[in-house]
Amino acid sequence: MVHFTFVAAVSLLSLINNAAAATNYTSQALNTQDTNTIPDNGGPTLYYNGSGPVPPENETSPIPLPLDPLSASQIEDAFFQEILAIVNLNNSFPDNCTKCVASVEVMHLAAITQPASTITDLLIRACNQFKFSIYAATCEQEFSGVGGLGPYWAQLFAKMSLATGDMQAFCFYNYEVCTQPPTIEINESDWFSPKPANKTTAPSPSGTWLPTSRSGTKITKADLGETINVLHLSDWHLDPR
């Protein structure tokens, strides 16, 4: 027991001596004056741990200065370079469908932030770069000038959304590089009011006058005792505007 107590006392004394030595060795770190600098050989001023000036706790980092704004041509070039990268990066976009969808998404972002003239210029550049199949003689004639498709495609791109499969549909119907997306189910009550109860069945013959017969006597549908079916056809289209 005596031997154990002696060993423990020696160990404790050794720890105290080491602590004292460490304290003496780092005594400058306990000095809170700013004069505790470390030789820097012409570099920035350095301080021992905890001895230098410390900002208040509620001080925040400075807000970085804004980047210089890009010109219209630089913005156009940035969008076009993104499209080129998408087409050329086979690892990120392994097939023509993913390349097309991602490129159209870039055009969507351009269309909601840039004027139609920028979208027209991007379409012309993309048309010349990737050899679009067009109706006009040149890409410039296809997308710019009187009747050019550029401003209309700009509106179309602006209305598109990945959430509703618009990019996939665009790439399918225009370039056939994607599969046909499913038809989106809509709630018709959001667009049409309920049909009145008295309009669910065809009305009885009203006896409205029909054209005169050869003899000049006017006859009615009631006289004929029959009705006729009429099919009314009209054109319809979807306009993104």
Helical stretch count?
Answer: 8
**Range of helix content:** 40-55%
CA distance, first residue to last residue: 97 Å
Shape: elongated
What strand order characterises the main sheet? 1-2
- Which sheet architecture does the biggest sheet show? 2 strands, antiparallel
What's the overall average pLDDT, rounded? 78
The arrangement of helices and strands along the chain is HEEHHHHHHH
- Uncertain segments: 18-25
Number of DSSP-assigned strands: 2
Describe this structure in words.
This protein has helices spanning 2-25, 72-88, 96-111, 116-130, 139-143, 150-159, 166-175, 221-224; strands at 37-38, 46-47. The protein starts with a helix and ends in a 17-residue tail after the last helix. Mean pLDDT is 78; it is low at 18-25. The radius of gyration is 40 Å and the shape is elongated. Helix content is 42%, strand content 2%. The chain is mostly helical. α3 packs across α6 (150-159). It has a two-stranded antiparallel ribbon.
Secondary-structure blueprint:
Elements: H1 2-25, E1 37-38, E2 46-47, H2 72-88, H3 96-111, H4 116-130, H5 139-143, H6 150-159, H7 166-175, H8 221-224
Antiparallel strand pairs: 1-2
Helix pairs in contact: 2-3, 2-4, 3-6, 3-7, 4-6
Summarize the structure.
Helices cover 42% and strands 2% of the residues. The protein is an all-alpha fold and 241 residues long.
How would you describe this structure in keywords?
mainly alpha
